[in-house]
Amino acid sequence: MNRSGTIARGTRIARPDAKRTGRTRAAVPDKRSHEARSGETESTQKLQKVMAQSGLGSRREMELLISGGRVTVNGATALTGARVGPHDQIKVAGRVIRAGPASRLPRVLLYHKPEGEITSRSDPRGRPSVFEHLPAIVGAKWMSVGRLDFNTCGLLIFTTSGELANRMMHPRYGIEREYAVRVMGQLQPQHLQKLTQGIELEDGPAHCENAELRGGMGANQWCHVVLKEGRNRLVRRLFEKLGFTVSRLMRVRFGIIELPPHVKRGQTRELGAEETQRLLDWLDAAAQPRPNPRGPAARG
Q1: Which of 255, 175, 241, 179 has the alpha carbon at shortest distance from 210?
Q2: Confidence check: pLDDT of 6 > 50
Q3: Lowest mean pLDDT: which of 3-17, 80-94, 120-134, 160-174?
Q4: Following DSSP, what letter does each residue of 244-288 receive, concatenated?
Q5: Are residues 132 and 220 in the same domain?
Q6: Cα first-last separation, the chain
Q7: Residue 245 CB burial class (10 angstroms; 0-12, 13-18, ≥19)
Q8: Do both 119 and 255 map to the same domain?
Q9: Could you read off the pLDDT of 32-58 as tens digits, one per residue?
Q10: Which residue(s) pair with 221 in the sheet?
Q11: Cα–Cα dist 279/275, whole Å
């Protein structure tokens, strides 16, 4: 499946619409003092950004922790907007975190999850975890971008940035998830129409952005559905409401990232620096408010 503007399938990634511009260097009378000031600025970052990148939550959530007096920097209660560097000791409710280099990109890892693995680090029942197959990492930790059920396979994304993970998962950004679904029975056009119009579930209505038949043989039929939310077992529950049993479920896309065909079950692939930067650019563009197509003067 080729889709313009997606990472993977090779791997491809959409280029941002806006051109990136270089930084203009201003003339300064004292080169040494300017370099010292510039180095200091570049080596420090806003405290809430460092906290978000460590996987504690979104920047807004981190600002609330800071304003609530639960964060200290070098033993003193931190203030919102404070800047910190690699040598500062940051404590969040007693937990120590460190500020990495300001220029370092987060790491993003793609994993082809097989059925029969949980998306948690431990399980009282002793079931295997997806984290057992990830490469070792020093000075950070892998965080999953969403989850996949025990019996669901396909694309699972991990990152070292809590902020990136939050932006991809948060409902307000409406990032698409695409699934390949195999059902037992024959889907009809009216079933696909119900999926896109909406179905009432026990935890509220849900719908698919798109639903397409993709063939099949005998009693098994394939279709692809696209959703913008990640409620627990949502795809399976939608089809159950239509009277169909899902016999196989596979996530093939999350946002602009597609599951690379050469990454087999149980294998990983890490995005390169250019791919990661393009993903960040795409997320920045997706977070911008969308203009009203009817214009500011429209009424009714």
Answers
A1: 179
A2: yes
A3: 3-17
A4: -EEEEEEEEEETTEE--TTS-TT-EEEPPHHHHHHHHHHHHHHHS
A5: yes
A6: 40
A7: exposed
A8: yes
A9: 333 344 444 457 888 888 887 776 767
A10: 183
A11: 6
Q: Around 36, how many Cα atoms within 13 Å sit in the side-chain half-sphere?
A: 4
Q: Are residues 179 and 280 in the same domain?
A: yes
Please report, for the domain that includes residue 49, its CATH number: 3.10.290.10
- Of 56, 74, 97, the residue at which a domain comes to its end is 97
Write out the residue range of the structural domain in which residue 185 sits.
108-285
Burial (Cβ within 10 Å: 0-12, 13-18, ≥19) of residue 51: buried
pTM, two decimal places: 0.70
**Which position among 30, 149, 203, 284 bears the catalytic label?**
149
Question: How many independent structural domains does the chain possess?
Answer: 2
d(CA 261, CA 118): 22
To the query of whether residue 284 is one of the catalytic residues in this protein, the response is no
191 and 277 co-located in one domain: yes
Q: What's the token pair of residue 140?
A: 């950070």
